[in-house]
Amino acid sequence: MGTSTLTAEPVCWLGEPAPGGLALPPALPNRVALYAPRGVYLDERVLVVADTGNHRVLIWHGRPERDHQPADVVLGHEDFESEGPGLLHLPTAVAVVEGCLIVADAWHHRLLVWDGVPERNGR
Questions:
Q1: pLDDT digits (tens, 9 = 90+) for 91-107
Q2: Which H/E stretch holds residue 96?
Q3: Please, which residues have CB within 8 angstroms of residue 34's CB and are 6 or more apart in sequence?
Q4: What average pLDDT does this structure show over 22-30?
Q5: How many CB atoms lie within 10 A of CB 115?
Q6: With contact defined as beta carbons under 8 Å apart, do 91 and 51 qualify?
Q7: CA dist 111 to 63, 73, 92, 93, Å?
Q8: β-strand partners of 111
Q9: Could you give the CA distance from residue 38 to residue 36 in angstroms, rounded to a whole number?
Q10: Distance of CA 28 to the CA centre of its chain
């Protein structure tokens, strides 16, 4: 029986370095920062991440191929630098089903459904 070789090296690293453990990084949202990301969806054309601690969803159109590659779209705020809860408060899960983006917005006890995966920032 053949053996498989596993690699511990990721293809790329998204987010910024943080101390980890119980030490929380500062919540300084930008195009590359992630704060306690929870939900992730990936297919051949899009990566969607519930950036829970920054109260937003980040979208990369196409698979990220380099470290710290900036997101293309932010949902929950009008721009990448806004802080605190906006339209979303603690988004925890994301999915794309039949082309529609679905976000679980935990604090508001709701699911938000977009007709497609947004290509522009927005609330």
A1: 999 999 999 999 999 99
A2: strand 91-97
A3: 14, 15, 16, 49, 51, 53, 54, 58
A4: 72
A5: 8
A6: yes
A7: 25, 19, 10, 9
A8: 104
A9: 6
A10: 15
